Prior knowledge:
Elements: H1 3-16, E1 21-25, H2 38-50, E2 55-57, H3 70-84, H4 99-112, E3 117-119, H5 129-140, E4 146-150, H6 152-155, H7 161-169, E5 175-178, H8 185-192, E6 197-200, H9 206-211, E7 216-219, H10 226-237, H11 241-255, H12 263-273, H13 290-305
Parallel strand pairs: 1-2, 1-7, 3-4, 4-5, 5-6, 6-7
Helix pairs in contact: 2-3, 3-4, 4-5, 7-8, 10-11, 11-13, 12-13
Protein name: Dihydrodipicolinate synthase family protein
Family: Belongs to the DapA family.
Pfam family, one: DHDPS
Amino acid sequence: MTSAQTAVSARSSxxxxxxxxxxxxxxxxxxxxxxxxxxxxxxxxxxxxxxxCDGVVPNGSLGEYQTLTDEERARVxxxxxxxxxxxxxxxxxxxxxxxxxxxxxxEQAAEAGAGSVLLLPPNAYRADEPAVRAHYAExxxxxxxxxxxxxxxxxxxxxxxxxxAQLHRDGSIVAVKEFSGDVRRAYEIAELAPELDLLxxxxxxxxxxxxxxxxxxxxxxxxxxxxxxxxxxxxxxAGDLETALPLYKSLHPLxxxxxxxxxxxxxxxxxxxxxxxxxxxxPPRAALVGDQESAVRAATEKALAEGLx
Length: 309
């Protein structure tokens, strides 16, 4: 199969299983007064899809969902569905402190027409396995396919391969966004739960997880450079290292910011430099300054100068 045929196949799979392919965890454009610019967000969703991405993930951490009011959070999902033109392309984040609240957000996503949801484990405390299983089972009752989000760095709850396999046997999840950074887990997940879809969860391990069998990417940096990111992902999943490896090396100074604490600010800054509507961040986050700002700016300008868009 050629790279082009593989790309077509990947898009067909995404149509059947909407959490597959490049699902961009969208940054949320804010005005200078920190209000949400819904028109800019709608335009951004359309632009991402027009530039090779398969869908969007509103209300993730990159979308600053923790700082949104309930009204803002609900409207972001509605705008994403309308702008995407096909609700299957939209996978809202439904994380919340309580399982009942997460289920309500999943129900809101279903009512808006979304195709799936992305769910963190309980993160108000270090939940044990029974609590994690109950949490995912509760949200799955909303009726949409649930993609688990493993981010033990921030949540302090690790969805290990054996636990993921159990959640899949429970019928609670269809896939996992793997953000632990441990690429070895891909093989154990495939052994313990071969039907569970593995999605790349951190931009800076894209190539490693794509080669290990990932079928999707919940992505950050396509917000600024979607076409180059799409080329990289398609080549990586096709095993086309001649294309993927040099592109990965060129983009990695930016991709690694997705795994840093300041990832929201970094990606929004890159968007601004690339002419996209990034804008400010809401407190307690603050704009990058000093060496961090200089590093992101230099890496973004270098990528743009190399024709990466």
